[in-house]
Amino acid sequence: MVTCVGARHADDLVRVSSRQRPGESVRLPAGALSTERDLLPGWARYPLGVVAEFRRRGYGIEGLELDFDGAVPAGAGLSSSAALCCAAAVAVRDLCAPTVGDRELIDIARAAENDYVGAPTGILDHAASILCTEGHALFLDVRAFVAAETGGFEQIPFDLAAAGLRLLVIDTGQTHDHAGGGYGTRRAECAAAASALGVGSLRDIDEVGELSGLTDPVLYRRARHVVSENDRVRAVVALLRAGADPREIGPLLNGGHDSLRDDFEVSTEVLDAAVDAARTSGAHGSRMVGGGFGGSIIALVDTADAGQVEDAVRERLAGIGFHEPRTFEAVPAAGAGPVG
């Protein structure tokens, strides 16, 4: 979780600080947000990008102070940047622009990452950070969500505790950076594959068999991952809608990781080792999460088996000379909002 405490000031200075970055507080005139961007500490660009985007859209924001605290590890594939941007966006909205709706708020947070930070992310992480509800998984249709003023998402019941299950998040400690090259390269490859197939997006392809026109083997693998992953998402949603035992989604989690490893090629030796250790020690399913090239895995486990799975992953990573991972439990919770 990331928390933000904010206050308005009568001057024109924007101030941001973080308990995790005590020596990297920033204070600058609101009008200098665009000209001073490249001189800012990396973490500060996220909340200041949010303020800059509010201003770009015509919301009159001047003196402002935002202080952050959080426990989401950076670079772990757990959407820490989206959490930071969304915490900032909710605070700025509540303090300065209460008419902003959730859809625009999500787009403001996305634009901060894309345009101010330079990370080519979509809206998935920001939408989840704002829209999720307790005890549910969020099913997001990005095209429908962006195109309309309502709809485009569904809350799917996801009560793991009632089924005697836990969803472990295991941070391998191998960090990544979406503002780097790998993530952007995969997006460009997907766009190239869609163009070669004559469609606007790979989501317009319904079956893997429709990819036969792709002669470039790399683009074929990238596209096959996207098409098969969309199928897996729909299959998970269908199972959960029907009230199936959540254990049944385990093989789909496994299939997702295998595709990310072999076709999208964004996994790593460390992630693969962690996933294999989780699977062979009792997890019903396990996969990497996030944009890849490091980060975390998730493992769906029986509550009674959580300890042995955690131990198995720790021992496997130690065996390949990697440092000790950190384990959390993911609990379906409500999205960002005021505290108290």
Which SSEs are present, and which pair or pack?
Layout: E1 2-8, E2 13-18, E3 21-29, H1 45-56, E4 64-70, H2 80-96, H3 102-117, H4 124-131, E5 136-140, H5 142-147, E6 153-157, E7 165-174, H6 181-197, H7 217-241, H8 250-262, H9 269-280, E8 285-288, E9 295-302, H10 306-319, E10 326-330
Parallel strand pairs: 2-4
Antiparallel strand pairs: 1-4, 2-3, 5-6, 7-9, 7-10, 8-9
The CATH homology group name of the largest domain? GHMP kinase, C-terminal domain
User: Count of helical segments?
Assistant: 10
**How would you write the strand order of the largest sheet?**
1-4-2-3
Beta-strand content estimate: 15-25%
- CATH class group of the largest domain: Alpha Beta
Helical proportion? 40-55%
> Secondary-structure element sequence?
EEEHEHHHEHEEHHHHEEHE
The assigned CATH architecture of the largest domain is: 2-Layer Sandwich
The low-confidence runs, each spanning 5 or more residues with pLDDT under 50, are none
Query: Which whole number gives the mean pLDDT?
Result: 96
Query: How many beta-strand segments?
Result: 10
Per the principal axes of the C-alpha atoms, what is the gross shape?
globular
Rg of Cα set = 21 Å
Provide the structure class.
Answer: alpha+beta
Count the domains: 2
Major sheet attributes: 4 strands, mixed
CATH topology of the largest domain: Alpha-Beta Plaits
Domain GHMP kinase N-terminal: 46-131
GO cellular component, one term: cytosol
InterPro entries: Galactokinase, GHMP_kinase_C_dom, GHMP_kinase_C_sf, GHMP_kinase_N_dom, GHMP_knse_ATP-bd_CS, Mevalonate/galactokinase, Ribosomal_Su5_D2-typ_SF, Ribsml_uS5_D2-typ_fold_subgr
GO molecular function: ATP binding; galactokinase activity; metal ion binding
